[in-house]
Amino acid sequence: MSIEKTRIPIWLGYALLGIFWWGLWGFLSKIGSASANPLQMQILFTLGMLPVAIGMLLQMRGKIDRNRLGISYGLLSGIATGLGTLGYFAALRQQDASVVTPLTGVFPILTVALAFALLRERLNKVQLGGMLLALAAIIIFSI
Amino acid sequence: MHWIIYAGVAILLWGINGLFMKLGTNRISARSMVIWVTAGFVVLLPWMWKVTSLAGLSTKVFLIGLIAGAVNGLGNWAVFACLEKGAKASVAIPLTALYPLCTVALAMAFLRERPTSLQWIGIALAVAGGAMLSYESAPAAAPQEQMSCAR
Questions:
Q1: CA-based nearest residue in chain B for residue A8
Q2: What pTM value is reported for the model?
Q3: Which residue did the predictor score with more confidence, A9 or A71?
Q4: Cβ contact B119:B104 at 8 Å
Q5: Are B90 and A70 a contacting pair at CB < 8 A?
Q6: Does A33 contact B at CB distance below 8 Å?
């Protein structure tokens, strides 16, 4: 209710929290990747995610959602992210990161296009402008 | 295979993943999503282990990698919660893709890295872009989003 009063949507708070955690992940990856190859880091990331998943399971007292379609999308999300990362690493073996990373950084455009076509999501003009600025920022950060 | 094909595969899979994330959180909780997404990552683990090994890594790097993984898992949970609470995929995915902004800030604070002029432009664009992407009242978007995805 306090959210309505302040007019800050609750999802935005979670989005900022996500940016913080992922930003910290990027920072730690930056330190770790000085002495480990990307695939070794990916293995460690996967192993590190396990305690978080187990913690969530314990928090839910084992009562995990059983919606089959939801579970399928969850599994597909993990596999797609993992395989996408492996594709990214494979590209890095042949080309410089300064070329590959800005290119792969445009992936949100595809999400926006798919959400437009399949979920019928519509962005207002300010958000569209924001998406373009965000993409430019993502590309700049990855150069 | 040419590198551009690998990069294309990454764009395709990461882009589609944004859709999977939204469709998943429309049906199961953010915490359940974390569990199943982690399971999806684990599926790839045997193959990765076949290609490389962790031999020779120092304890420090090992710990950094594990902590980074845990932090990544928490980030996944936050983004799933963001989608679960009604954020559009077309807003949440580009917005949270701005996380390098936080990485740059942490590198400035702890590694004393000085951003280049171009990175300063990136920081300004990220802040402006993030604020503009967030320009929406969530309560109006949430029910519509849920209904359009219900099957």
A1: B137
A2: 0.88
A3: A71
A4: yes
A5: no
A6: no
The pLDDT score that the predictor gives to residue A133 is 95
Q: How many domains does chain A have?
A: 3
CB contact under 8 A, A11 and B15: no
Tracing tokens 């042949």 back to the chain, one arrives at A94
Contacts of B17 in chain A (CB under 8 A): 76-77, 80-81, 84, 111
In total, chain B counts a number of residues equal to: 151
Total domains in chain B come to 2
What pLDDT is stored for residue A85 in this prediction? 92
Per-residue model confidence as pLDDT tens digits over A10-28: 999 999 999 999 999 999 9
B37 and B102 in a single domain? The answer is no
Q: What is the mean pLDDT of residues B83-108?
A: 94
In a domain, B141, yes or no: no
Average pLDDT, chain A: 90
Contact of B150 with chain A, judged by CB distance below 8 Å, is answered with no
Q: Give residue B129's domain range.
A: 89-135
Range of the domain at A42: 37-94
What is the rounded CA–CA span in Å between residue B103 and residue A27? 5
Contact status, residue A108 vs residue B93, Cβ threshold 8 Å: yes
Other Cβ atoms within 10 Å of B32 Cβ, number: 26
Mean pLDDT across chain B, nearest whole number? 89
